[in-house]
Design goal:
The protein has 191 residues and is of the alpha+beta class. The protein has helices at 3-9, 15-25, 41-54, 101-118, 126-137, 143-150, and strands at residues 71-81, 87-97, 140-142, 162-165, 168-176, 179-186. The protein has a 4-stranded antiparallel sheet with strand order 3-6-5-4.
Length: 191
């Protein structure tokens, strides 16, 4: 698309305003056989994104970040050991210009696979390990920390400083900043 057509497309009054946009995107417009500058489809895509961005009040050329880069990162997989015995893939990057759709889809599949391999399901009783650590260590937990672990806010009945839930006692022992401090104690049940 020729510069004059692009001036109309973006409703710009001067060529300088257009070339300021081109400069901010760090692109070079090719020239046709007659020496007239024109924009390629990829450059028009970037210019369109910039134009949409600049419609928002208060935006500037320097604050623009393209939604889709002009290049793509090619992933080269190498095994990487982790501390938990599983292995994931470490990626080395190499820039390619103008990938095709199949390359983009493959990269997306690799990325999703790497993320899925690193997500570990949390045990439904994970909080018992954390409470055990707090009890053994003699740690004081705030009300919000206890609530995060047991999913309910601890409270004491009138005249008591102890809240019980399951195999755990939470004993009020003072304050941590503005919050109530709780000492955790494991209830040992004899059979």
């Amino acid at each position: 698309m020729k510069v004059t057509e692009l001036l109309n497309r973006y409703k710009l009054k001067t060529r300088q305003a257009f070339y300021d946009r081109v400069k901010s995107l760090d692109i070079v417009l090719p020239k046709d056989a007659r020496g007239h500058s024109y924009a390629t489809p990829e450059q028009i895509n970037l210019l369109d994104q910039l134009h949409d961005y600049l419609r928002t009040p208060g935006t500037t050329l320097s604050g623009f970040v393209p939604l889709s880069p002009t290049g793509v990162v090619q992933v080269v997989d190498t095994p990487l050991d982790t501390s938990n015995g599983t292995s994931i893939t470490q990626s080395n990057e190499k820039n390619l210009e103008y990938p095709d759709e199949n390359q983009s889809l493959e990269l997306l599949e690799q990325l999703v696979g790497a993320i899925a391999a690193n997500i570990q399901a949390k045990s439904p009783i994970w909080y018992h390990d954390e409470l055990e650590k707090a009890a053994i260590g003699g740690w004081l937990l705030s009300t919000s920390e206890v609530k995060h672990l047991i999913r309910v806010k601890p409270y004491c009945k009138k005249g008591s400083d102890i809240y019980e839930r399951g195999s755990w006692q939470f004993i009020k022992v003072g304050k941590i900043g503005g919050a109530t401090a709780w000492r955790v104690k494991k209830i040992i049940m004899e059979i």
